[in-house]
Amino acid sequence: MNHKNILIIGGTGSLGLGLIKELLASDVASIKVFARNEHKMFSMQQTFLSPKIDIVIGDIKEKDSIDKACKDIDIIYHLAALKHVPICEKMPNEAIATNILGTKNVIDAAIKNQVEHVVFASTDKAVNPDCTYGTSKLMGEKMILSANTEPSNTKFTVFRGGNLLNSAGSVIPLFEKQIDETQAVTLTDEKMSRFFLSIQSAAKMMIEISLRSAGGEIFIPRMPQIKVKDIAKYLLNKKEVSDTNISIIGLRPGEKIKEQIISENEKEYLFEFSKELYVVLKNDNHRWEANHIVKKYDLKNETSKKELLSYEEATIFLKQAGV
Question: Is 125 a residue of the active site?
Fold first, then answer.
C-alpha cells in the first residue's frame, strides 16, 4: 500500500472505519472518505485525527460528485449501499438507485479516472436472493465483474462477506440494547442462522485482495455459521439474565431463515486462495489455476463438518472476537 491514494466510498460505516484503521497502519499516501452523513464524517475525523484523511460529502447517486472524488485515486473500496432488508423492501426504488445505479456511477468514474483497482463489498444475501437488498447486491456483483471487460486497465473485484460482528445496526448491538432496556430479546425465528466475520478480519482481507487480485474474482472469506438464538443466549448469560427471556415475533419482509455464501452454479468454479479466503473464478482467461496460484476446492470436504457451530463453539468464537 506504499504511497497509494485510497478512496473509501461509504467510509463512515463500521467496515469503513475498520479499513481506515488498517490503512493508517500502512504507508498509504492519503485516504479520501466519501459519504453523505455529515455527523458521521465529523465523528470519524475526531476518532482518527490523521492528516492523511480527507473527507468528501457526497452521494454515489450523483455522477459528477463521485467522478470528482475519483480523481488521482489508486484504489477504491466501494462500501456504500442501502443495506437494511425491511427498508429496501419498503423502498425498492431507493435500493435500485443507490445499490445498482450508484455502483454503475462508481464503475464509470473509476474507468474515466484510470483508477488501478476497485474492490466492491457484497453480501451473502446476494446468493439466490429473494429480497430487494440481495437482488440489488447481486446486480452490483454482476456489474463489477462485467466491468473487467471494458477497454480500461482498471481491475474490478468482489468481496462477498457475511454479517459483521458488532457493526452498527447489526443484531448484537440491537440485542444488547433490548436486554438493557427490557431484560429480554425478540427473535424473528429460533431456527435463523447467519455467517459472521469480525470487522478487523474483513478489513484486512479487503486490503489483501486489493493488492493481490488480478480482477474478475469473487473472494469469499471462510466464516462460521451461528444460530442467532445462540447469540441472544450468549448475550443474556453475559449480562446475567435468564436465557429463556427470548420471544419469537416472526420473520420480517425479505428475511431468510438461513443464508448461503456460495450458489450452486458457483461450486464448480470454487478455488482455495488462502487459509482465510475462497475465490470464485468464472473467467476462462484467468491464469491462476494454470500457474498453480490457486487450487480447485471440493466442497465435499465440508460435508463431514457441522454446518452450524454448537452453542459452546459459538460462545468461544464470540469471546475471541471481543463480543
Answer: yes
pLDDT tens-digit profile of 81-94? 999 899 999 999 99
Cα–Cα distance, 229 to 70 (Å, whole number): 43
Per the structure block, which three cell numbers stand in for 289?
Answer: 489455476
Max intra-chain CA distance, the chain: 60
Enclosing H/E stretch for 263: none
Distances (CA, A) of 148 to 9, 18, 44, 153, 283: 20, 27, 33, 8, 10
Alpha-carbon Rg for the chain in angstroms: 20
Amino acid, single-letter form, for residue 169: G
pTM over 0.85: yes
| Residue range 220-277, pLDDT digits in tens | 999 999 999 999 999 999 999 998 999 999 988 888 898 889 999 999 899 999 999 9
Q: How far apart are CA 281 and CA 279, in angstroms?
A: 6
Which of the residues 4, 32, 83, 125 is marked catalytic?
Answer: 125
- DSSP states of 123-142: EGGGSS--SHHHHHHHHHHH
d(CA 183, CA 150): 55
Question: How long a stretch of residues is the chain?
Answer: 323
pLDDT, tens digit, for every residue of 138-163? 999 999 999 999 999 999 999 999 99
Reduced to 3 states (helix: H, G, I; strand: E, B; else coil), residue 121 is strand
Q: What CATH number is given for 1-162+198-222+263-302 in this structure?
A: 3.40.50.720
Give residues with Cβ within 8 angstroms of 104, minimum separation 6: 143
Residue 196 host element (H or E): strand 193-197
Distance CA 294, CA 274 (A): 8
